[in-house]
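Example record

One chain of 361 residues, shown exactly as stored in the release files.
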Amino acid sequence: MRKFRRRNMKKIISIALTAILVCSLFAGCSEKAQPDAAPDTADTADAGSYPTPENPITLKFGHISPDTSDMHANAVLFKETVEEKTGGAVIVEIYPNGQLGGEETMLDSIFSGTMDMGIISANVAATTIPEFNCIVLPFYFDSFEQVGSVIANEEFYQKTAEIVEKKGVHFLGTPLMAARGILNTKHSVRTPEDLKGMKIRVNTGSILADTFDAMGVTTTQLAFGEVYTALQQNVIDGLDNGIFASNMMKFTEVAKYFTNTMHYFQLSPLFISDQAYQKLSPEQRNILRESCKEVEAILVDEANKSDAGAYEVAETELGVEVIHLTDAQFQTFRDLVQPVYDKYVPLIGEEYYDFVTSIKK
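Predicted structure tokens for this chain:
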């Protein structure tokens, strides 16, 4: 009985091994009979779906300034350059004057992908991307030329673009700059002491409020559209703003003292949503960057001319007293804002701060 069982067991094992061998042979034949695996067509498919002149993409581009502003003129130059270089495959549709919302709303929309592109002030961008605080630090830059040396630096662009991309959107460059001063309804300002007792409207971003707090000034972040009436009704005594924008918004009709403190330079980066960016070919993405660089190339000359003309209009046509500070007077303001650096440089990151500082010329 045991011998019978052993003989049967040997037969079963033999049959099983034979079956396994046959299956493996057929499996091998089956693999060889299959055609070679199809190449990955994802790139090809994507390339086929990129915008073309016959099937263009329209990118909605928002900013908060009127269509008479430098910001709008720069947006138009960007639009025209992009459309020309892409042969009409990429159409840029500009919405000025806050039609797509305020800067905070537009930035949120770019992050969510419900808006394609927008120019956003660095101080607003810094609320989400703290590294932008670096170019909003008080008295960090001395001139338009020094600002221009930074934004034209390709390494600055690359480092900043990498930081921004990690946040989920894309940085194309900085197509606007303007020097900020202090406009008020009370009296001329030459020292921080002259600001005591005033209530000053400052732009969005904690760093600006902290800057004026360090100078002993009460601040408010009143909506920009409410500033004119607030100046008229003495709700506020003044604001930090550029001279060109102050004339354009007619603030200099009711406030007659402007001090060119240059406490910071208004820099406004251009962002594009990741959703819009991914729809473009690598070449089209590069065209967006190159088009922004063309705008950056004219900024220093544009800003100097714009301010010179605006100062002349303010003084000769609007009766504004314009105060240009001496080096010693500038220093009295600088001496008060060191606590702002102590607070924000760690938020910016020492490495990024040191890098940007090293390329200022």
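Notes: Residues 1-45 have pLDDT under 50 and may be disordered.
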